[in-house]
Amino acid sequence: MSRNGPAGSGPAPRRPEGSRKPGGAPGGQVRGSMVPEAEFRSYYGRPIIKEPVWTWEVPWYFFAGGLAGASAPLGLAARLSGNDRLARSAWAVSAAGVTVGVPLLASDLGRPERFLNMLRLFKVTSPLSVGSWLLATMGPAAVGGVVSDRFGIFPRLGRTAEVVAGVLGPALATYTGTLVADTAVPVWHEAGRELPFVFAGSAAASAGAAAVLLTPAADAGPARRLAVTGAALELGAAQAMERRLGELGEPYHQGPAGRLARLAKACTAAGAGLVALGGRRRAVAGAGAALVLAGSACERWAVYKAGFQSARDPKYVVGPQRARLQR
Amino acid sequence: MKADLPSPTDRGGRHGPPEPRTFGGGYDGQARPRMGFFTDTSVCIGCKACEVACKEWNLVPQDGPLTLSANSYDNTMALGANTWRHVAFVEQRRGEDGLRWLMSSDVCKHCSSAACLEVCPTGALFRTEFGTVVVQPDVCNGCGYCVPACPFGVIDRREEDGRAFKCTLCYDRLRDGLEPACATACPTDSIQFGELDELRARAERRVATLHDAGVGEARLYLEDEADGIGGAGAFFLLLDEPEVYGLPPDPVSTTRDLPTLWRAAAIAAGTLAAAVAGAFLGGRR
Q1: With contact defined as beta carbons under 8 Å apart, do A315 and B243 qualify?
Q2: Residues B64-96: pLDDT tens digits?
Q3: Across B108-260, where does the E strand assignment appear?
Q4: Which of A97, A298, B193, B225 has an alpha carbon within 20 to 30 A of A251's alpha carbon?
Q5: Of B123, B159, B250, Cβ closest to residue A120
Q6: Same domain membership, residue B222 and residue B92
């Protein structure tokens, strides 16, 4: 702390009534296990990092991509185990997810007509590049598998496509967690180890739930079990994420992100309970599945909104960096 | 204070013949010495000639309707797609007797480990032969990933245009052997342009001079190659903590942690696959 600043370690002096906040004024505190007590100063309370410029398409893409990505291995496993009825539902959901995902991703671009520039290079340092290639490989494979199955054409090629999509699907579901973690946004970056698990659980839950809705109860046993284990993973990983973030995770308890996070937990827990207890009663399991899908969507929206809230307040940027310097 | 300032004809880049030195390699013998900015905020007078010269030369559009921020003399407030130099005005009470002003011209840091460049999926952002980081507007598709990746909040998307823009360190002028517009316009040599090694040596001398003169709070910011961004191509002499100027005190390039992040994604994908397999263990119906 500078000798000139109003701070020091004690409480900040009150500013005169009506005075504007001068640069270098204490802006707040970040407390908790991760961020020790730290006064911080800011430039008129202005954000240090930029908020993302992404819009509503992005969280819905996370949801659609997760649904498509987790439905693919479900479809593949159902096919391999001889449950063709479940396989058909899961592959339909997977193909629909990628079909919706591509325009969502393209329309969020500032220059949608340059969408194909995403495939100019393959860059491991850019999760968006890796994800574009995953989508460009897995998407046509999932759609091709469904076309082959429905029209009975090129059966061997269709089955090969299902294997390709089924193997790449889980990566399509989890890379989006790394995508947001690979930014300077504190609530995303510091949760980089948990976010892919939150997204994996959320994706598995949604894929199981969607298949429950589209499959006769007698054939939907694995889908029900996937919805329940996925929901458990989603809830557990989100809990672990909030624990690691400590006070940095404040956005998950405040404002829009806080409301969405609470709604996600309630929907996912209630839905998983109904699916688990409802079993073969289609109406009960169906209601549960709808809740699980809603919970999964809310979870992505909560993560998305929390990033904006985290980027907006300089205390989340300065606090941990100051703590690091003083360590 | 004056003795240590270089004369206008004695600026970096004109100190003898440039020594060819590669930065990151791969420039087929075209690599030039790494060029950068040393912004000495102790002599900034807040005239904003740099902001104006930058806008004029680079044809950067207006930021929006003219408004007054009511924050000292700073109505620009932040770097962005349409602001590539930004002069901060900090008013501080000093004891009982007065006020001091800190003025600082901020700019893209042209990091050695540049997160914007690393996360760019199209390759629109690239490292020039001068070691600077530049966006190619004919390649950028406006995905916006660079915007939250930057630890300084420098780069942004121009909404009416859809693409990302930031300081180019006047790439066009450098290729023609000219100094960047902002450094040329700066009347006090607060903005010094030149070879990075030379600027670093000069900055060390300047800090020593200021310390000798009793300005103990003078410190360099981002000159250290061991920091979280591998050192910056544009570094600063500040008179208070970085956050007072709206700068992060210990920035780290987010891609430093990417191996950990990818590992987590891979294990999570494996967990998802195992969950699917497990769902069939209880029976296939």
Answers
A1: no
A2: 888 898 888 999 999 999 999 999 999 998 888
A3: 125-127, 133-135, 156-157, 164-165, 191-195, 219-221, 234-238
A4: A97
A5: B123
A6: yes
ipTM above 0.85, yes or no: yes
Contact A41 B280 (CB under 8 A): no
Do B155 and B115 share a structural domain?
yes
- Residue whose entry in the numeric block shows the structure tokens 């800090």: B207
Domains of chain A: 1-13+21-46 (no CATH), 57-313 (1.20.1630.10)
The helix (H) or strand (E) run that includes residue B148 is helix B146-149
A160 to chain B, closest Cα gap in Å = 18
Please tell me whether residues B101 and B234 are part of one structural domain. Answer: yes
For B71, name the nearest residue in chain A, comparing CA atoms only: A44
User: Count of domains in chain B?
Assistant: 2
B238 touching A, CB under 8 A? no
DSSP H stretches of helix in B165-214: 171-175, 181-185, 196-212
Q: Which segment of A48-57, B7-16, B134-143 scores lowest on mean pLDDT?
A: B7-16
pTM above 0.80, yes or no: yes
CB–CB of A41 and B93 under 8 A?
Answer: no
Percent of chain B with pLDDT over 90: 80
Please give the residue range of the domain that contains residue B96: 2-252
